Amino acid sequence: MSHATAARHPVATSRAEAEEGGEEDYYTARASFDFGFGGSDCRFCEMTRQHQPHCARRLPKRIILVRHGESQGNLDMSAYTTTPDYRIPLTALGAEQARAAGRGILDVVASGGGNWKVYFYVSPYARTRATLREIGRAFPRDRVIGAREECRVREQDFGNFQVEERMRAVKETRQRFGRFFFRFPEGESAADVFDRVASFLESLWRDIDMGRLDQDPSCETNLVIVSHGLTSRVFLMKWFKWTVAQFERLNNFENCEFRVMQLGPGGEYSLLVHHTKEELEQWGMSPEMIADQQWRASANRRSWAEECSSFNIDSFFEDPKDSESSSDEEEEEEKENGKIKQLE
Question: What is the pTM of this model?
Answer without folding.
Answer: 0.76
